[in-house]
Amino acid sequence: MKKFIIIATTAAMLSSCGIYTKYKPAETVPDSLYGEKIEVADTLNFGNSDWKEVFTDPHLQTLIEQALQNNTDYQSAQLRIEESKATLLASKLAFLPSFALAPQGTISSFDSQKATKSYQLPVTASWELDIFGRMRNSKKQAQALYAQSIDYKQAVRSQLIASVANTYYTLLMLDEQLALSQETETAWKETVDAARALMDAGQYNEAGVSQMEATYYSVQTSVIDLKEQINQTLNSMALLLAETPRNYERGKLADQKMPEDLSVGVPLQMLSNRPDVRSAERSLEAAFYVTNQARSAFYPSIVLSGSAGWTNAAGSIIVNPAKFIATAIGQLT
User: Fold this and answer.
1) Is the peptide bond before 30 cis (omega within 30 degrees of 0)?
2) Who has greater pLDDT, 67 or 105?
3) d(CA 204, CA 197)
4) What angle in degrees, to the nearest 10, is found between the helix axes of 206-241 and 134-200?
5) What are phi and psi for residue 225, nearest 5 degrees?
6) pTM of the model as a whole
7) Which residues, 6+ apart, have CB-to-CB distance to 315 below 8 Å?
8) Residues with Cβ within 8 Å of residue 235, at least 6 apart in sequence
C-alpha cells in the first residue's frame, strides 16, 4: 500500500511539473472574434475541391502535373518529410536497448619472455529507463515536426498549383490583348492609308494625318510591349516547371469554364483547410514538448547496462580455453 501511495504521489508531482502533460490546442476563441455571429449551414467550400475540378483546361492540367513532378521547391518539401520521418523513427527506437559488439585482443611480452595473448569477445547492452519523460517528449516533438512537414508540403503544393494557374491565365489574358491590339493595328493602318489618300486628293490636311500616324505608332508600340510581357510570363512559367523557356500550348480565354457553384465556406473550415495555420499549430506543439524536455533534464537519468561474452583474461591470469563472463551495471546520473 505504501509503495502504491509513493508511486501515485510521484506520478502526480511529475504531471504537475508538466513533464507528462499532453499538448492540447486551444478549442475556444474570444467572443466576437469574427464579428457578429452569422448562422450558416454550408458544409462544402472551395478549399475541399480538387484542383482538377477547378482547373478543367487540359493544357493547364498538363502544366500543373509537370510542375508537381519537376518543381525543386516541391521536391525539397517531399525530402523534408522523409527527414522528419527518419527523426521520428529514431526517437521511437530510443526506447529500445542498444547493443554493441566490441571484440579486442592484446599481445604482450616482458623481458624477452614468451608473448602473452589475451582476447575479449563481449556483447554490451545499454537501456535507459524513461521514467522522467525525456524520450517520450522527444518522440512527441518528432511527431509534431513530422506533421508540420506534411502541412508544409501541402502549403508548397497549393502555392505551386496557384502560381501555375495564375501564370497560365495571365498568358491567356495577354494573348487576348495581343490579338485585339493586332486587330487595332490593322484597322489603324487602313485608316492612315485612307487619310493619306484623301490628303493627296486635297480633301484632308497633313496635321490630321500626322495625328493618326502617331496613334498608329502608339498601337504598334503596345503590340511590342505585349509580346515582351508574354515572353517574360513564359520565362516565369518555365521557372515554375524547372525547365528551359519555351512556347507552351494553351487554350483561349473565352473557352475557360469554372465551377458554377463556388462556396467560400465557414471561417472555421477555411482556417482548418489552411496548411500554414496547421503548420503554425504544429510548431507551437513542438515547442511545448521541447519545454517538457528541458524540465525533464532537471531529474535523474537511470541507465541499465551490461555485457556478456568470452575472455581468457582473468586479471593477471591467462586461461585457455576462454571462459564466459557477464556483468550488469545500474547507473543513476
Assistant:
1) no
2) 67
3) 9
4) 160
5) -65, -40
6) 0.74
7) none
8) 245
Task: Write down the pLDDT at residue 32.
Answer: 55
* Helix extents (H) in 242-333: 267-273, 275-296
Distance CA 213, CA 151 (A): 58
Residues 224 and 44: their CA atoms lie apart, in Å, by 45
CB distance 309 to 120 below 8 Å? yes
Query: Does residue 316 or residue 323 have the better pLDDT?
Result: 323
Joined grid coordinates for residue 248: 507552351
pLDDT in tens, 100-133: 888 888 877 766 667 777 778 888 888 888 888 8
Q: Do residues 243 and 10 lie in contact, with contact meaning Cβ atoms separated by under 8 Å?
A: no
CA distance 241 to 248: 11
Look-up of cell digits 522523409:
82
Angle at 62 between CA 60 and CA 68, to 5 degrees: 100
Tell me how far CA of residue 190 lies from CA of 142, 193, 217, 220, in angstroms: 72, 5, 13, 14
What pLDDT, in 10s, does the model give residues 21-65? 778 776 665 555 445 554 544 555 666 778 888 888 999 999 999
241, three cell numbers: 516547371
| Spatial CB neighbours of 210, under 8 Å, sequence gap ≥ 6 | none
Calculate helix-pair angle for 134-200, 275-296, nearest 10 degrees: 150
CA distance 94 to 127: 9
In sign, the C-alpha dihedral spanning 191, 193, 196, 198 is negative
Sort residue 96 into left (φ over 0), alpha (ψ -120 to 50) or beta: beta
Cα 15 to Cα 7: distance, rounded to the nearest angstrom: 12
H/E stretch holding 18 reads: none
pLDDT at residue 10, as a whole number: 53
Instruction: For cell 591470469, name the residue.
Output: 317
Alpha carbons within 13 angstroms on the beta-carbon side of residue 188 total 19
Q: Distance between CA 98 and CA 199 in Å, rounded?
A: 99
Angle at 134 between CA 130 and CA 139, to 5 degrees: 100
Whether residue 180 has pLDDT greater than 90: yes
